[in-house]
Every structure is written in C-alpha cells, then in structure tokens.
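Components:
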Amino acid sequence: MTTTLPHVVVVGGGFAGLAATRALRRTPVRITLVDRRNHHLFQPLLYQVATAALNPGDIAYPIRSVLRLQQNARTILARVTGFDLARRRVQLVDGELHYDHLLVATGATHSYFGKDEWEAWAPGLKTIEDALEIRRRVLSAFEAAERLRDPAELPAVLTFVVVGAGPTGVELAGALSEIGRLTVARDFRSFDPRTLRVVLVEGAGRVLPPYPERLSAAARAQLERLGVEVRTGTLVTRIDQTGVWFGQEHLQARTVLWAAGVAASPLGALLGAPLDRAGRVLVAPDLSVPGHPEVFVAGDLMHCEQDGVPVPGVAPAAIQAGRAAARNIAARVAGAPTRPFRYRDKGSLATIGRAKAVGQLGRLEVTGFLAWWIWWLVHIAYLIGFRNRLSVMIGWAWQYFAFARGARLITGRAWEPGRAAPKP
Amino acid sequence: MTTTLPHVVVVGGGFAGLAATRALRRTPVRITLVDRRNHHLFQPLLYQVATAALNPGDIAYPIRSVLRLQQNARTILARVTGFDLARRRVQLVDGELHYDHLLVATGATHSYFGKDEWEAWAPGLKTIEDALEIRRRVLSAFEAAERLRDPAELPAVLTFVVVGAGPTGVELAGALSEIGRLTVARDFRSFDPRTLRVVLVEGAGRVLPPYPERLSAAARAQLERLGVEVRTGTLVTRIDQTGVWFGQEHLQARTVLWAAGVAASPLGALLGAPLDRAGRVLVAPDLSVPGHPEVFVAGDLMHCEQDGVPVPGVAPAAIQAGRAAARNIAARVAGAPTRPFRYRDKGSLATIGRAKAVGQLGRLEVTGFLAWWIWWLVHIAYLIGFRNRLSVMIGWAWQYFAFARGARLITGRAWEPGRAAPKP
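Structure:
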C-alpha cells in the first residue's frame, strides 16, 4: 500500500459504504472509511433491540473489525462536517481528508414532517440509542402501571401507539402486543398486562403500502389476530405528553413510537446537487453526482429512479448500490467507462410476530408461518460474518419456545414514578 | 395471599435481597421487593461488560421475572428516600410502604475517599451504565490513537491506569492488556495496539490483599506475564485530565479506572444505627439493627464480624446473609428465637485473564489454568436461572478460541477527536 495509489474516501459504514469498501478490496486504491460511530448496525433487526428480544451487541459490530484483514482500507472514527468538492476535500470536525474518489453513503434518519417537537413524545428508531430509549419507555410503562394509584389512569398507561405502518411500524406493533400478551403476562400483580392496547396508525389506506394489496390485507389480519388495533387512512395532527390527536379525536397514550417519515442525512445537501423532497441526492444513472464524476452517492441517501420508480430505501438496495458505486470507482481508476446501476429486487419480507409475516419473492406471495420462516433464514444468512448470529439464533429460539425476551433491561436514566410523561 | 399476613419489605434486589425473598417463598408472609432498577445484576461479571466481552443482557435479568412464579412476592420499581422506624414505614419518592419486617440490602458503591472530583476522570464499576462508560472510554482511546497527529501524545493515549488491585482491579487490568495485545491487535493502521501500557496501582504491599501471600505473588506473576505493570505500595495523590499523580511523580494517562474504595449505600445511615467507617451498619449477630428486632440488614451494607474479622463484601456472603435474615424473619413470624448468622467461607477466586486465575478453596490454593477453569465453572453455575448462561458460555468460548470480544460497541455520547479528556 503506497501513498501514490488513488485515495477513495467512503463516508458512512452502513450497508452501502461497507459493501463498497469490501468490493474495492482487490482494486489498486487506498480506502479510508469514515464514520462517526464505531459500529456497523444491522438495522433490519433494530426493532428487536427496541422490543427487548436482542442485545445491542447482537446486531452491531465494529467496522474496523469487519475490515481488519482488508489491507487497502483503514477506518477512522470522525464526524464529517462538509465537503470542498473543488479542492476534493472531506471536512472533518478536526481536520480534512483529500480524496481522488468519494462515496457518500450516510443514509437517512426519521423525519417528523416539520413537527420536530413531536420527537420528545414519539421517539423514532434509527440508532442503538433510539432502540434502548424505546425499550426503556415500553418497559417503564408496565412498571408505571404496576404502581398506579388511580385506576382511571391505567388505560392511558397501557396504550401504545405506533405511528406509521411500514415494515418497522408493523414489526414494532406486533412485538409490543406480544410483549404484553405473552412475555410479561404473568410478571405483574396489580394489573393484567394482557389488557394492553396497541394502536397502529397509518395515513395511507392500508398497512405496508408498498406491498401488493393481498399482502397488506394478510398483514392486517395477522396484526389483528395479535390484538393490534389497525387504523389506516388516519392522519396524526398532534402529539404531546397526553397522547395523539387525529383532528378532533384524542387518543390518550403514555407511549407513542414514531415509524413514519424518512429524511436523508443532512450531508447530502452539502454536495451541491439537486435533492428530492426527502433530501435525497438525485444521482446520475451511474450513481455519480451530476457535474462531479469523482463523487458517488449510494444507499438511503441516493434518489435513483428505475423504470420510473425510485429504488426503495432497503438494505438489499443499499448493498447493491454500494457495490455498483465501487465498480464504477474501479472503472474510473482503470480509465474505463462507468455503467448505470440496475437494482435487482429479490423480494421483500416483513415480519409481524411469532410465526407471522408476509413476503413477496419475485412473483410469489407468501404469508404466515412460511413467510416468517423465510424471513428468519434470510436474516440469519445476512448476519453471517457477525460472530453474533449464533447468539441471535439462540435468543430467537428461546423467544419462540418460551415466549420470553432475554434483554428486558431498563438502562440509562432510571424511571421515577410520578414522572409519567417522557421528557424531551 | 390475604392482606392479613405479615408484610415483609425487602429494599434492594441484589444478591442479598433476592436470596432473602426467594428463601421466604414458603413462609406465611406477603413480600414487597423494592428496587430503583428493574434488574438484578450479576456484579462479579460486570468487568466483562466493561471490557467488551459480554453484553449487558448477559449478566442482568429483570427482578420481576425472577419472582414471576413466587406468589407471595411482588416487585415494585421505586427509589427509597428514607425510613420511619417508629411508624414502620419505608418512604418512597412517591409514597410510602408499611412493613411488619424490613430487610435493607442496598449494597455499596465505590468511594473516592472524599476526593469525589476524581470520579469524572476515573470512573468506577458498579452499574451497567458504569460498565458501558468504561467500555466507551477504553475503546475510544484506541480510536483516538488511530487519529493522533502528534506522535508525542501516543504514550498518554495508550496508557491505562487501574487504581486498586482487589479482584475487580486485577480483572480489569488483565482484560485491558488482553484487549490491546490480542483482541484489537490487528485492527489499527497507524499504531500498534500491542504497545499499550496497563498500570495497576495498589496502596497495599501486594495485589489481592485479602488473599494468602502465595496467591498474591502468583497473581502478580500472571499479570506481569500479560504485560501489566504492577505498582504496589503506591498511593495516588491526585487524578485529573492529564493522568495520575503519586506525590511528585506524574503518570500521563488518558484513561484511568477506579477500583479502589467501597462506600456503603447512603440508606444505611438513615436507619439510626451505628456505622463503620465505610458507612456499613453494625448489625447484631442475627443481622437485625440494634433496638429494632424487626429491621434487618444484609449484604454489602452490613458490617458483621466473625471471629474478629468482618465478613467480606462478596456475593456468596451476601447470599448467605440474605438467607439468614430470611430465616430470622420467618422465626419472628413464628414466634421463635432468631439465630446468629454464620458465614461459611467456601473460598475465593479471582480471574486475571485467558486461562489465568488464582483461588483459595478451603485449604487448597490453586493458580493458573486450573484456577481459571474452576472460576469459569462456578460463575456458570451461579448464572443458572438466567437464560443468558448459554449466550455467556458461547461468548466466552468464542473469546477464548478466537481472542475476539463480541460486544465492542461504543454507545452513548459519540467520541469526538480533539476532546481527548473525559468530561465530568
């Protein structure tokens, strides 16, 4: 590894950034992967940390360990503050990095559609810390119910609202219902946890809007069998410490979780390229930034249309885009032409609860136990390379057979009775 | 369970409180266990969370799940603020509980011998949060080393000082050295983690002061084989952001960990009984508080002498004392006389690193691999009842064979370069 090789800087160690770095392992370049976190996060299973089924360490792994043996890559932990495209520099909080080729893959976070004050009452789920905060609130609600003096307050304390019925919202709602009805059902003395109420709210006309209608209907039926109240075509107009408003209607709820909007990482706006409404960068077909053939964007930060439809913000698309960007960087290093990115949709799966899921695999639609089993195999397969997959498998097997959740810790700020509402 | 049964309130769900509650399961009493945390913590393995070998969920378990099937016990999550012994009330942050019999088992925390300002620079290890903070600092030090511009700063960044060479200090120092020399040895590009320096400082003349001299010597030899610098008979006079002072001598170190003093829980002082210098309650031989035969103290909060020597603050002593207090509560319920507590010392074990440990089992002294193997079996056996023991076993087996540590996440406040010193 000499310093005369072209320098590729990859910003972001998520699915896209890591896939690109790995794909460049035999290309004659030096790679620097920059992330402000030390770990790669397997986000599709993050809701399982939030619902106390898995430990954080089960789904996150140090980026530098993933790249340990890749001699042409180094990892640095730093926050990127901007770009100087003219001078080909990435600006860090404490310095800058020169690049010959740049890949920006900093993903997306949740968006409150301009109502950022809702975040204090309805946390979203993007990081390990988010998941632990949601876990803390959910478990603390049951603890608060056990200590209530005024039984009139019980319904609000035991009402959990999930806003947004995409895959994350559906998974959260199903898991919450299972926690109350199965996991902690016998743990309390002064109330029956099975009386919890889980309300899943969706603005669109059905759950899992991007899925075929038949699967949406199957998912809804499975959710209702789990005791989840599904309210589609319902817009949230206000969220505060007392609960959720739908226009004039007020739903009292101590615990509200946000699984609705998505906003691209703010770094996308610093690339000087046109953005879509969610802040995603409108990339050229080869994933480069228009006017800057040496700068690429991949993953949830990119807006890339294919056959008139945007490529979805899911892990397989991010991995494929990361690899495509890497191929094009390698092509440019070799003086060859770049090629347009083609997303190959291998299907989608959403799990709902114990032995409940829906999925589309090519033209095949699956529901129920079969879908759940495929979901399980796919996620275990993806976790390969993580040492944690064995412990994940054991955790899941345990959960399935014993209805138990092994990671039911309330950590961080201790819960105090009398402070029923979450604080910002 | 009728409300006319005597009411036993147990404050604290550690080893003593939980053992007492379990021991009263067939006694005709109603039990309320109060804890401000929702989980029982297997503290002897907490250093493994701090050194990234285990997940928090591997060593902590919800108290109410442990007591799920014990029909005469309920668990409440609340902070105790005081006692009204005359009216037999436990005061909570949001109310009070009447008791007929009270067991206070709120344990101990670390003490800085009046130098509380040292805590910001030298965190101690008592809670899950402490462990995660130590993990964050240790892993962040390596990340800082990777990004250093001025190589003159490298020695301070790579120096880890552990103050106190009791079992926790010895375990931390050994594990830190193994992290640098084995686990992350190949993970960095701009420095060699094997050049880390771990300094274990002890005021007494030898490591593991309560152990026989031969074992102290063996432990020291094993630590030195792991590359730990052991400094006994050395008093720390100051700790700040630059490191540690021993009188005039200054040791530059970015990361300092505190494993020295122990102070009893402040609730002990609210019982109106005499205390020892560390704030422990001087209990009667039957573990009751003098003048209050209905109030008992057990575990690390009690000061109880046997053959002129205080019973040590270790988990087996806490379990035995909890059970003895329960027997005496049952005796009082039955109108029978109480009996004095007798601590049966089954031995002590301290682990130092991979296949390294020392132990005393009755008159048998063991060192090295045999001691480590016994330590491992004992800790697995204690974890029985936790579903997590399988995952712990896998974690350890992995660590042993692959020199890897599976829980190497930096969570919480992200590390920023340029902020080399920890903040209060």
